[in-house]
Task: inverse folding
């Protein structure tokens, strides 16, 4: 380097070094994009396969598999919705997931607010219990829960499902909402109370509106959690009329004939709305995820 | 804590409901419904599961206390040992792969790239897909007849013969692992990316000035910045993978001949055969390891919070 500074003749070489730096940059860029594009292809291919399988005729699915359907058909959707009566499970899932979301967001808003704003005995213990509950896996709880639900005459009913789904949704939403409420400045609330609001009024009028994005994210997580649940539904629900979407699809593959077309049509119906929602609201959902680590 | 400490409470000491007490009651009243439901729906069933595991309960009979008999019986069965082995393999291998893929992609997307938002959105997609849909889709992909994977491998000439991925002992477990990694890596990717973005940029500048090369910068700046997130993510991911039901159930139901059997599926089969004590023992058997992971994760998450 010193040589280069002293001797102007050597300067072209210094420029060459800058050039290779730039080349290196572009090679790095190129490799980065190559890796990312490969990753995107690997991610998109199964989703693509799900969609085109749902649009193929049975003979195309089994006899002449191809990357692009020769004939597009909605026959699989007709079979699923009309012959297999798939609207019933969709409706059941909507009822269960909505009820679970509303109940857990209401109850956990109160709990999270209490834990963020007040100091009292056992608060640390309560926080610990909520975290333990959040991390207690369903695989450990499904046996006792099925016994208890049967004892309470809530087995095989949507009410029972709503109740047991609170086991995972309630700790999750309390844990996440604590993070959001902590972000609302205490001063705003105190100002509101000076202006004549009660504590509860301050929660309703100030804290909840300010954490609206958080509550929306938590609602989506809770809803999808209930929408996706399979094990508890499998254990608790015995009659066809009470089946939820994952359960109905599960019974499609445990029958002897494997109807891939209608199965993928059901997969499309039960996932595409959610995936579009996540795709659009990604910033939002990422914040929620990193606020408290959401079960995958 | 006590109401006498509040100055305004002194003049009306005769009243039972002082302002401070009212506030405490309000605070407890708000947290009570959540805690009552969690105790009733999680804590009680949790303890009940442990109790049932020590009985010979069947459907229709409450059962008697049998001590460790269920566990002794299970320890002697081949399917139980393969469930232990499969669970360990599944958790360790998927964790390592998800770590490598998630970290690699997060490092790539963390650069100032045109279009990084779009890439991030695509890389998150499997996470947005319901698990049951993801594994049903992979089940179709793996099919010998009409499956997309075989189609690609045979048409591109990478491997000319159709493979029954889920039906053969040697390929069943790798297939379950691949599908689990596909569905599970976005969680790692997003968590690691968020941690990377919280590392101050001037730390990198300082390291560069000190003459650290890219590798040294990674170990001295990046790694300490994401270490906490890596540990928490590993713990959470291990807990969830070890207890997941959908992946194995929807892909192989534990087969062929128990090659992919894991605890939750084994417990479910136990319940279907109506021997509830034994089924509970299966799910309780992994409790010691699970408890250690949960306790470490809980204390790390609570420390995070403060």
Result:
């Amino acid at each position: 380097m010193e040589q280069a500074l002293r001797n102007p003749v050597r300067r072209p070489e210094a420029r060459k070094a800058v050039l290779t730096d730039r080349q290196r940059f572009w090679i790095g860029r190129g490799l980065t994009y190559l890796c990312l594009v490969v990753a995107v292809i690997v991610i998109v291919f199964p989703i693509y396969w799900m969609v085109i399988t749902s649009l193929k005729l049975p003979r195309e699915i089994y006899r002449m598999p191809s990357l692009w359907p020769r004939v597009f058909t909605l026959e699989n959707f007709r079979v699923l919705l009309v012959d297999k009566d798939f609207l019933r499970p969709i409706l059941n899932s909507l009822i269960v997931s909505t009820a679970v979301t509303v109940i857990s967001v209401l109850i956990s808003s109160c709990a999270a607010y209490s834990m963020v704003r007040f100091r009292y005995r056992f608060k640390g213990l309560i926080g610990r219990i909520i975290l333990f509950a959040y991390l207690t896996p369903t695989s450990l709880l499904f046996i006792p829960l099925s016994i208890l639900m049967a004892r309470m005459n809530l087995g095989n009913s949507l009410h029972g499902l709503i109740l047991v789904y609170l086991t995972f949704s309630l700790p999750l939403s309390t844990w996440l909402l604590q993070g959001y409420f902590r972000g609302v400045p205490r001063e705003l609330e105190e100002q509101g109370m000076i202006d004549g609001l009660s504590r509860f009024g301050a929660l309703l009028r100030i804290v909840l509106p300010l954490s609206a994005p958080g509550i929306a994210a938590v609602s989506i997580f809770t809803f999808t959690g209930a929408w996706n649940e399979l094990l508890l539904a499998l254990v608790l629900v015995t009659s066809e009329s009470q089946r939820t979407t994952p359960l109905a699809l599960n019974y499609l593959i445990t029958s002897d004939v494997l109807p891939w077309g209608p199965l993928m049509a059901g997969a499309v119906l039960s996932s595409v709305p959610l995936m579009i929602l996540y795709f659009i609201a990604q910033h939002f959902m990422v914040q929620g995820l990193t606020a408290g680590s959401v079960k995958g | 804590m006590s109401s006498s400490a509040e100055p305004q409470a002194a003049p009306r000491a005769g009243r039972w409901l002082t302002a401070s007490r009212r506030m405490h009651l309000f605070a407890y009243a708000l947290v009570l419904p959540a805690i009552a439901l969690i105790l009733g729906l999680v804590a009680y069933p949790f303890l009940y599961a442990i109790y049932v595991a020590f009985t010979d309960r069947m459907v229709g009979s409450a059962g008697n206390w049998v001590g460790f008999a269920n566990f002794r019986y299970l320890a002697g069965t081949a399917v139980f040992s393969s469930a232990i082995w499969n669970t360990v393999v599944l958790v360790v291998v998927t964790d390592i792969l998800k770590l490598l893929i998630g970290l690699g992609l997060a490092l790539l997307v963390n650069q100032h790239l045109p279009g990084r938002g779009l890439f991030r959105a695509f890389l998150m997609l499997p996470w947005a897909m319901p698990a049951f849909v993801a594994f049903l889709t992979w089940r179709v992909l793996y099919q010998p007849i009409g499956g997309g994977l075989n189609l690609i491998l045979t048409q591109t000439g990478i491997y000319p013969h159709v493979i029954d991925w889920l039906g053969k002992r040697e390929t069943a477990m790798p297939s379950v692992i691949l599908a689990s990694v596909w569905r599970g890596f976005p969680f790692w990717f997003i968590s690691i990316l968020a941690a990377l973005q919280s590392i101050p940029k001037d730390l990198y500048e300082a390291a560069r000035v000190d003459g650290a090369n890219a590798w040294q910068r990674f170990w001295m700046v990046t790694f300490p910045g994401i270490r906490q997130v890596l540990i928490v993510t590993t713990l959470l991911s291990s807990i969830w993978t070890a207890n997941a039901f959908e992946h194995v159930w929807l892909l192989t139901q534990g087969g062929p001949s128990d090659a992919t059997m894991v605890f939750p599926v084994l417990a479910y089969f136990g319940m279907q055969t109506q021997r509830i004590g034994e089924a509970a023992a299966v799910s309780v058997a992994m409790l010691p390891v699970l408890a250690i992971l949960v306790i470490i994760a809980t204390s790390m998450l609570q420390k995070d919070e403060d």
User: Anything to note?
Assistant: Confidence is low (pLDDT under 50) at residues 1-14 of chain A.
